[in-house]
Amino acid sequence: MDVAFENRKLEKRLCRLVGQAIDDYRMIEDGDRVMVCLSGGKDSYSLLDILMRLQRRAPARFELVAVNLDQKQPGFPAEVLPNYLRQLGIPFHIETQDTYSIVKKVVPEGKTMCSLCSRLRRGILYRVACELGATKIALGHHRDDILQTLLLNMFFGAKLKGMPPKLVSDNGEHVVIRPLAYVPEKDLIRWAQVRQFPIIPCSLCGSQDNLQRKQVGDMLREWDKRFPGRVNNMLKALQNVVPSHLMDRGLFDFAGVRATGRPEADGDLAFDPQTLPLVASFADGDDEEALDAASWASPAMTPTVAGAAGSADNASTQAQRRVIALSPAP
Ligand code: SF4
């Protein structure tokens, strides 16, 4: 195997997937100042790395500023990130706030500290975003984080709710984006090895692993190995929601359903043989041409960001759909 070739392919795939997510959800626009939250883990390092690559070739002009919150966890190597960021020559800010002591004081021994810790971190990062004049806050959550959240919400929260690629912060003041939304975690693990990021372990605070999230993550990884394409199709399913075929009365007016006397294109095929559209995945590596139509992924296309999403979507949709008859007609 030619390692350099494989690495180059991985880099192209990462840029394509991130570019497409940015395009699809208009995550970054001309003139944006994007605050990239860096934790020292593989995901946020990769996020910054890929955004810097796209910044050089994307049609929109935008600024990046990296931010790390030093929460004063015992043993946190405070010099690692500043040294790395200085080498990159990118504007950055290290915010030092001892949230570790607060969390330790407030949360009873043996209880998980993550929920309070994240709430404190969120508030601080929003404030820093204001101080830095950031118009967007970029987080390093990836495809597998989104799907884990979806399943956890179903299993334990009785809700069909994932993790949005773009949202308004809970204080209403910021737009938060997740440019890695289409990226499988396994690609980020490999990219961190290729780029040799100086990873800071995330176990410094001594908080227990979230066991349920870990179990769901293991299940997704197992599916990905045994049934290639399934996990990506789950992500695609989040983009192809049919409210009339779910059961939320707030989303669809079931009470108002009446026979119209006209055939319905999206009607229920109650008595027909079922056919399922098999949606090829973003990360499968095929249909490269169609996917490269996304303006952020390809410097050859230079429409405005706002104008490109529709055409890219059409091209990729046409190229990605194949139909497989699951059962012959009776
Ligand atoms: S693992 Fe530690 S640093 Fe991370 S959210 Fe939980 S308590 Fe905070």
Automatic annotation (TrEMBL):
Pathway assigned to this chain's UniProt record: tRNA modification
For this protein, the Enzyme Commission number is: 2.8.1.-
Domain tRNA(Ile)-lysidine/2-thiocytidine synthase N-terminal per the UniProt entry, residue ranges: 34-196
State what protein this is by name. Answer: tRNA-cytidine(32) 2-sulfurtransferase
Q: What does this protein do?
A: Catalyzes the ATP-dependent 2-thiolation of cytidine in position 32 of tRNA, to form 2-thiocytidine (s(2)C32). The sulfur atoms are provided by the cysteine/cysteine desulfurase (IscS) system.
Q: What PANTHER family would the database entry show?
A: AMINOTRAN_5 DOMAIN-CONTAINING PROTEIN, SULFURTRANSFERASE-RELATED
The record's section on HAMAP family has:
TtcA
Q: Where does [4Fe-4S] cluster bind?
A: C114, C117, C205
- One GO term of the biological process aspect: tRNA thio-modification
The protein's organism comes out as Tepidimonas charontis
Give the location in the cell: Cytoplasm
Reactions that this protein is recorded to catalyse: cytidine(32) in tRNA + S-sulfanyl-L-cysteinyl-[cysteine desulfurase] + AH2 + ATP = 2-thiocytidine(32) in tRNA + L-cysteinyl-[cysteine desulfurase] + A + AMP + diphosphate + H(+)
Coiled-coil stretches:
none
Q: Name one GO cellular component term.
A: cytoplasm
Q: Which UniProt keywords apply?
A: 4Fe-4S, ATP-binding, Cytoplasm, Iron, Iron-sulfur, Magnesium, Metal-binding, Nucleotide-binding, RNA-binding, Transferase, tRNA processing, tRNA-binding
* Cofactor comment text: Binds 1 [4Fe-4S] cluster per subunit. The cluster is chelated by three Cys residues, the fourth Fe has a free coordination site that may bind a sulfur atom transferred from the persulfide of IscS.
Keyword flag Flavoprotein: no
- Please indicate which superkingdom the organism of origin belongs to: Bacteria
Q: Summarize the subunit comment.
A: Homodimer.
Cite a single Pfam family from the UniProt record: ATP_bind_3
